[in-house]
Amino acid sequence: EVYKRQIDENRVLDMEYAPCDKPAYHTSFSPYFMRQIQGRAYVVGRSSRHGAPRTFAADRIRSLVATPQKFRRQPGLTADKWFAHSYGAYGGDDLEPERVVADLLDPDLAAYLRQRPLHPSQTVLPGPGAPDTVCTLSLEVALTRDFIGALLACGSRLRVVAPEALRRRMAEEAKALAALY
What we know:
5 helices
């Protein structure tokens, strides 16, 4: 609620932010919009520390203090554009989508992904992949860490067909995981 009011008022905020892998810091923050992703809230805005719009996890914001200063929104920047090629929390103008094709090997996974697509560009088509393929998944999405994690979570119920670099990455992750066990 506090974010929405500040976003609506175009109010600059003094924000203390605590990333999970770095020390906390203060920045002047101009919040543009919010997005809820898998039960977590994210706020996108311009940070004086970074000099550009960034995505911040709301639960990592330690404090927000409204300043009297107002900001102008970056022209043309919308949540739809920021997250257009994104699976989850990673967004931005610099994300380049790739065509991902995967064989779904489990009918339950196929049914689940038909009801809960990974991305708006997703299609799930019947076969005709390898003989063990139930159907084929296709989507245009950036190959971000969270997207790759979602594919890995499918385990042996999904086989990436393309792009080749993603196939290799999945194989490397599977080998590393097998080595742990």
